[in-house]
Request: fold
Amino acid sequence: MALMDERGAWQQRIHAALFHQGVARVRGLLNGEGRQAAAAAELSLVGRQMVDTALIAINSLTEQIKPLRAQLEGIGRSQPGARALLAHYGIGALCAAIIWAELGDCRRFRSSDQAVRFTGLDVTVYSSDGKRSSGRLARQGSPELRWALFEAAKSAARTTAPDHDYYVELRDRLGGKRPALSVARKLVRRCHHTLRELGDEAWSEPAAIHSEQEAA
Reply:
């Protein structure tokens, strides 16, 4: 996540450089078409140097991210607890591994509401000390967990998603990120029940490790 945040910061620098030099916004800087557009943009010498330097940094960070992503996706597909989360629409192997690791042993939660509060996706209420305003996300706990849940929840925008009607209703009424955040809270509850029902199995070794031990 730290590497992805750093890569995102370099992308923002490129967008800012293009904007200040009157170049139309280039989308998809991580794919070939976007990179070609950035390389072909008419820039000053300083602007070109900045963009080229940023692209080199993005390439370096991407090469570091790839093996880590593959490792996490492997855990998501092989570890029983993480693999069980794949049954929930929108959760892929990467998000499954992050949610499983960051949510932890759900048997410690008395209810799914407590699991939602743990993620920091709950909405705050008025606090008498004046330090917390109402109607905002608590944002306590793991930012990686919130990222994975939000990414998975955005899939509710697809017409095939089981939460699509709920998502559209909230989108039309509230707009912004709130529909996806509401679906993310639903996903927390589903993941809580899934991991809780698995019990100790949710924390057993990945299938690949078992196979290697049996072969030995």
Summary: Residues 32 and 38 are 10 Å apart (CA to CA). Residues 209-216 have pLDDT under 50 and may be disordered. The first helix runs from residue 2 to 20. The chain has ten helices and no strands.
